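User: Quick sanity check before I run a bigger batch. Here is a single chain. Can you write out its predicted 3D structure?
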Amino acid sequence: MLMNMKKLFKNLMFLTLGSSFALLYSCGEDEEPLPAAPTLTVTAANASGAAVANGGSIAATDTITFSFTASTPGGFNTLRLTGSASAEFSRTSEGIEAGETAPNLPSISFPTVATDAGASLSINFLLVDDANQVDTVTFAFDITDAPSPEARAYSATILEVITGDLMNAAFFSSSTGMTYSPNDVTSTSDPVSATIDFGYYYGTNDGAALGSPEWFSTSEFFSGQVADWGTLNSINFVSTTLTPSQFVEIGTWADIDEVYDAGTDENQVISNLAVDQVFGFETDADKEGGSKRGLFIVTAITGTDGSDGSITIDVLVQEDAS
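Assistant: Done. Predicted structure follows.
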C-alpha cells in the first residue's frame, strides 16, 4: 500500500511539472496584436471639377485627377499605383513621419488625349502600412470622344456689292471675320488675299450672288476685281434646307459638318440669294490654315448693283471660338 502511494505521488509531480512547463511555453509565444488594417478611399474629378464615378467616363482631351483619403493605424508606408497609370508615394518622398496614421497625400492628375477615345482604363491603388497590411482599390473608367469645339461666330457681316472703282468692301475672310475691298488687298504688302474666302456681286441674271476669288478670276465681267492678287482661293458652296430657327441652334464644328454633308453641291458660286437662306462652304485645303467648313444665313439684301448695294450675313466657321 505504501509503495502504491509513493508511485502515485511521483506521477502527480511529473504531471504538475509538465503542466507548468506548457503554461510557461504558451505565455512566451504570445504575439502583440496587429493594428487595425489600413483603409483607402479614392475619388476622381475632371478638369472642370465634376466628379468622375468609379466605372464612369471622361472625355478624351480632358484631365482626370485622383484624390485620396488614407487611414493607416499601423503607420503609413506606401501608396502605389499600377495598371493604366503608375506612380508611388512613399513615407520618405512625401515627408511623412513614422507612425503617422492619417497622412495628407497629394492628388495626382492624368491628362487624356484624343487617341484615347474608346479606351477603357483601370488603375490599381495599393495602400501599405508599416505592418505590411494592405488595402486595395481598383478605379476603372472609359474614355469617350472629345466634345466638338464651339464654332466661331461673326454676326451682321455686311458685304458691299463690287464696284468699278474697286473701293467697296465686297470680300470676306472667315479667318479674320473682316471684309476687304479689292483695293485693300492690292494696296498692302500683307498677304491678305490668302485669307479671303468669297466676295459679293449683283448680276442681271444672277441677282444677289457670292463667288470664290478663283471664280471671280474666270469671270468675263468681274476678273478685274481680283487682278494682281497673290492668292486666289477656291471654295465650295452647298445649299441647305435649314430654317433660321434651326440655324441658331448650330453651335459646334460637328454641327457644321453634319449640315454641310447633308447639303446640295453648288460649286464655287451661288446666285439669286434670298433672305433666310442658309448655305455651307468649305475652303480649299491649300488655303492658309488648311481646309475648314462654315455656314451662313442671309439676313438682309439691300439695293442691287449700285454702289449702295449690300448683303448681310451671319457666319459660323470651324475656327477657335475664343
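Confidence is low (pLDDT under 50) at residues 1-28.

User: Great, the batch can go ahead then.
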